[in-house]
Hints:
Mean pLDDT: 93
Strand content: 25-35%
Helix content: 25-40%
Low-confidence stretches: none
Largest sheet: 5 strands, mixed
Shape: globular
Distance between the termini: 54 Å
Order of helices and strands: EEEHEHEHEEEEHEHHHH
Number of strands: 10
Amino acid sequence: xxxxxxxxxxxxxxxxxxxxxxxxxxxxxxxxxxxxxxxxxxxxxxxxxxxxxxxxxxxxxxxxxxxxxxxxxxxxxxxxxxxxxxxxxxxxxxxxxxxxxxxxxxxxxxxxxxxxxxxxxxxxxxxxxxxxxxxxxxxxxxxxxxxxxxxxxxxxxxxxxxxxxxxxxxxxxxxxxxxxxxxxxxxxxxxxxxxxxxxxxxxxxxxxxxxxxxxxxxxxxxxxxxxx
Length: 228
């Protein structure tokens, strides 16, 4: 099975094509350019470089969230557009599970974190058993202080994800960081998780933001202050 996967949930963006678990090619960009500029050209270049056509792809995959609202929308729109245009099955995987996948050889407890702003992080905890990830909690948004209290009950914790450095500093460098080259969520990990993910019609594939958009949070706060 050939899978084309896209990861666009944070600052970095990546695109990967795998065949039966083998990486045929991958593009990873962490240069600060908007994903609307990098994602589709990366897809086009990767297909051309691997000698494939979109019709050769058996499954499309994307991180469904949590993450940057704009990034998730760009990645989701790209996958849904490709899926609808070429009639290809598609699926979404958790961004945090994607981040944890890359670090599963580094510790027994994988703490995947992303910067959620507003004093919070997106987080999920996983236990590693015989190279397999097992969830300890659902994807969530919480304060770093709350995460610190929870982590104190675990041993052999490793921090990973694009918010790992933030937590490493905030938690007093108590927990080690996953190595740089496997710390970030990547399309190759999306493809690996997509091997067993449930496929959905493109119209049913939706982002999972975890929190309300900033504009909606500000509106609700304004209404609260106004007594409504």
